[in-house]
Amino acid sequence: MTSPFRFTSPEPAGGTTGTAAAVHAQVTRDFGIEGALPFVALSAAPDLMAGAWALMRESLLSGHASRTEKELVTYGVSLANRCPFCVGAHTLLLYAGVDRDLAGSLARGERPADPVHARLLSWGQDMRGSQPFAAADAPEFVGSALAFHFINRIVSALIDEEAASGGADPAELLDSEAGQVLVRAVRGRPEPGLSLPLLRTEGPRPPWAAGTPVGAAFGALRSAAHAGAALLDERDAAFVRESVAAWDGFTPLPLTGDGLPDRSERPGARLALLAARAPYRITSEDVKAWRVPPLTDHCLVHLVAFGAMLAVERVEAGLTARG
Hints:
By secondary structure, this protein is mostly helical. Helices cover 60% and strands 0% of the residues. The chain is globular.
């Protein structure tokens, strides 16, 4: 069987221990998917795995805002980031939430007929516009969107999306035993805050999170991801930070003339910048040029996460500047 992982060899969910095993158990219970690939991909770095899970759980799965409406936002984010695996996953989750007509129309490439749904999808694709939800719901909607700006990049960088997709029909899949588990999870509403004891790091809580568990999760993930900067020298880390800060947060990285560092001279800076702006363009040659002993899967996941979080912060800064 072809591995769905491009550059790492993570332990299967059942083979993990400690924090990684605890996260997998909670993902299975609350998300309804055993061995969910984005979290398996992060399991070599349990601090990142716990932070990413907590942010997704506390914003998308928990809370009081409509799960369908939050799925539409994350669907739009995944479209903007060119992450077909995540687009397919959100389509499946919409099917599981008894929104089969909506999911079917999206799968056909149509815009939602409901104007509220259409505005949510558009905002997910470009978050620089006005927020189409109540201010009280911002922690859940903004948190969900930023969670998938991070997760999309992890998936595109570290998962072989073609090998992982499988091409199963959503309606048929949901009729299976595993599909029924997913349906029950999507229609449930997990208690807020139960992921926070899994966190291994902490960091400042953003104002938009308004003191909710989403803020603690975001701060923890940001702190864990920034630890990856230590894998670069100061010059390269500064270069990547400045390059991402000068970006608008949404325009794809051009295929030519893009100012990428040379693979042979500055492979770490190249990898981190690609993780931020075009993770689907990371190649095995890029990884081999940087990953020399004693660098490990743990290191690669952290470097990719550093670039991914810089992109998340760039999108977040646009929201903050707009107020």
